[in-house]
Amino acid sequence: MKYVALISSILLVICLAILVPQNRSLTQENIELREQFAGISQAWSGAADVREFSSVEELKEWLAQDDTDEIPFVEGTFDCDDFARTLFYRAFYDGYIIGYYTHGTHARNICFIGEDFYSIEPSYDGVYYLGKTWE
Hints:
The chain contains 5 helices and 4 strands, in the order H-H-H-H-H-E-E-E-E. The longest helix has 18 residues, at 2-19. Mean pLDDT is 76; it is low at 1-6 and 19-26. The chain has a 4-stranded antiparallel β-sheet with strand order 1-2-3-4, covered by helices on one side. By secondary structure, it is of the alpha+beta class. The chain has one domain: Beta Polymerase, domain 2 (2-Layer Sandwich). It has helices spanning 2-19, 28-36, 40-43, 56-65, 80-93; strands at 99-103, 106-113, 116-121, 126-132. Helices cover 41% and strands 19% of the residues. It is globular and about 35 Å long.
């Protein structure tokens, strides 16, 4: 339990470091996200609250209610890495485990559902099967 609190605190610091860089002016979306995730350690009070999506349908339903894909794309200010981090933090806040990664110059999200893993394109809620976790 103490490790969950420690990890939550570390992720909160990383979140704020990413969302509030010294060389970038804050956009309204960044300000709202910073406020939304200021209480992230309270949202994750224990490991029982954290889980993977149980099905592709559940993932797609969650993506449909999330509005990350509606944030305007602004090259150099709010682009693919910002979309991927935003979706990561929002999933985290809602108690889901997803990650984000870069492939070349593009950032995406990834999640495991059972023994399968999926790539998520956060700017338009695309979900793509990548394979079995053991392949």
